[in-house]
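Fold this: Alkanal monooxygenase
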Amino acid sequence: MTARTPLSLVDFSSFSDGERPADAFRRSVEMARTAERLGYSRVWYSEHHNTSSVASAVPALVIAHVAAQTSTIRLGAGGVMLPNHAPYLVAEQFGTLEEMYPGRIDLGLGRAPGTDRTTLARALRRPLDGAASFPSDILELAGYLSGESLLPGVQAVPGRGTVPLYVLGSSLYGARLAAKLGLPYSFASHLFPPMLEQAVALYRDSFEPSAVMSEPYVIAALNVTAADTEGDARRIQRDMVGQHVLAMHFNGRAADDEEIARLMDSPAGRHYASMLDHYGVGTGEQVAEYLAAFAEQAQADELMLLVRGPDTATNNRTLELVADAWGLNPDETAGDPTTWRR
């Protein structure tokens, strides 16, 4: 792998105590504008429900908002949790986005609910075993988007001939399915690192060429924090890991200092911290060295960065330092690896 491996971003549209989701959306626009200026390839937004600090419950709306305030960068869902939705509606939503912002929209698909069981069953009114239909739901959705609907007389308008699909995963299941369907595969190693290498190897070894793609395409995600000095970057990293552990365990519930201390020194705390094991931290040059090694380890065609920092200025500085050290060029960014939509 070389420094020409495309770099992209995943954005949780997160917000903190005392803020509103609107603050998160303003930051998302600022991040996308900065990424576009610097030469990052795409930004993806993930679907979460009943999460106290994440505003991206409806990725399609976030994408529309950001796309209206940017010009060239690709934007997508990373991803839509497909079992939560009718494939037909997803095709219409993302087909509409693509017609509004042609050549800029991606659709990543996950099979997890993106929420807890109560929210899934009672608020979203979806079956707890909905993930079992994930393969057939993808085929139905792909049919609408390719203009070859599996339902006679039913077409997605907008939708036909528009948005490329990506299979998201953090286990062997997604890797196997993406390979079988001949679709690009994105591994969520920014939060679920253990099976990265095994899943990517399985995907590449078992990939079946399709009408969509003749060769496998892998996106691997990881966390990054860059600063002007290594010490500053590592201080920010420690704070970000701590915030992640607290958010995972308490999900917005208040906790006193003693309770937090016990958590950080517990097996649960160490487990939550280990979710961020793939983390590039340091100066721009140090992060670039880490990215190059990680890209080789992950056999990745593209890297997707989750930038972790306390505020917009810090995150934008990470983007600038990494872009400079990596040699990003706004005129040389990744596009859609699939072929059918052309």
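The CA atoms of residues 39 and 328 lie 5 Å apart. The chain has a mean pLDDT of 91.
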